[in-house]
């Protein structure tokens, strides 16, 4: 397995949930990590807590906004001296309504964050990888292949992300760029509802640390090998 020590990584949506645990895992592996989130306060708080683990940099950024993405990557350039090896497109959320009840704004909220954002970030990362190449890891969802009522916008966005990931790989695999999507099912994070407000046992759900473990495994595979997709689901889902 390859080492992540000394590598530079960006994790979008890295202030909490899956993104936070992936960022912390990369720090423990010896990587330098830049995170972003929409709120400056949440970014500053996360950086203060994660500084104990390793070299972390944070910047407020809404990945649905092209200009903010550009400024975020420019800030990372200054912090990491223009070096970038890994991009983890993790920022995501869902607006869940039936199609007949969904506004165009609801639709765009799903597409802009879960599909357009990864494109904006991947485009910036590719210009920085150079001849040495790099790795783009997109956090997708089993909702990309399993439709459910009320999920049309989210299903469409994540399904689009999966095909974007595959096309991105085909476009740039000869440029030493490896690309992978991780597709978790139910994960015990605020995305599934505020833990303080959820009732009952959640131990059946995937832990964010499990996703981070898979991310680390994928990113440390030898350069000759690319894991292109990983599906994750609870072993014994709640009935």
Key words describing this protein structure:
single chain, 239 residues, alpha/beta, Rossmann fold, 16% strand
Describe the secondary-structure layout:
Elements: E1 8-12, H1 17-28, E2 32-37, H2 40-50, E3 56-60, H3 66-79, E4 86-89, H4 104-129, E5 134-139, H5 152-172, E6 177-184, H6 208-219, E7 229-232
Parallel strand pairs: 1-2, 1-4, 2-3, 4-5, 5-6, 6-7
Helix pairs in contact: 1-6, 3-4, 4-5
> Helix proportion of residues, in percent?
40-55%
At the first level of CATH, the class is Alpha Beta
* Structural class by secondary-structure content: alpha/beta
Q: What are the segments in which pLDDT stays under 50 over at least 5 consecutive residues?
A: 192-198
Please give the CATH architecture: 3-Layer(aba) Sandwich
Morphology call: globular
CATH topology: Rossmann fold
Strand content: 15-25%
Q: Report the count of strand segments.
A: 7
Radius of gyration: 17 Å
Calculate the mean pLDDT score and round it: 94
Describe the strand arrangement of the main beta sheet, using strand numbers.
Answer: 3-2-1-4-5-6-7
How many individual domains? 1
What's the name of the CATH homologous superfamily? NAD(P)-binding Rossmann-like Domain
Largest sheet properties = 7 strands, parallel
> Helical region count?
6
- How widely separated are the two ends? 38 Å
SSE string: EHEHEHEHEHEHE
